[in-house]
Amino acid sequence: MFNFFQSNHLSQDKAYEQLQNDSSIKLIDVRTKEEYREGHVKGSVNIPLDTLPNRFQSALPKKDQTIFVICLSGGRASDATAYLKRVGYTNVYNIGGVGSWKYGLVK
Residue 1 falls within a domain, yes or no? Predict the structure, then answer.
């Protein structure tokens, strides 16, 4: 089920640095709405993994845009990253999970 080692992975330190320096990066949180409400990375957009096939085109119109994907531990982010790459997105990175995000969460 999980494609963790098959998807593009980016360390959270590098992801945080890039997010600070490039406001065009889309950060997608693929956890459930309930999980997202409990705390999420500032600036992230919630697109639960089970809704991704129906919502990705409107939420992510540019296939060459840099996209970071996060979940709770990295598994769902890996699946989402692999899916987005399969449908033609070229700059998609799994940045793991909010469970290890050390830069603070917002509610």
Answer: no
Q: Is 4 part of any domain?
A: no
Is 71 in the active site? yes
pLDDT in tens, 45-70: 999 999 999 999 999 999 999 999 99
3-state secondary structure string, 26-89? EEEECCCHHHHHHCECCCCEECCHHHHHHHHHHHCCCCCCEEEEEECCCHHHHHHHHHHHHCCC
Q: What is the pLDDT of residues 83-106, one digit of tens each?
A: 999 999 999 999 999 999 999 999
Predicted structure pTM score: 0.92
Host domain of residue 32: 12-57+66-100
Query: 20-24 contacts: CB < 8 A, separation 24 or more?
Result: 22/66, 24/65, 24/66
How many independent structural domains does the chain possess?
A: 1
**Catalytic pick from 71, 84, 92, 98?**
71
* Residue 7, in any domain of the structure: no
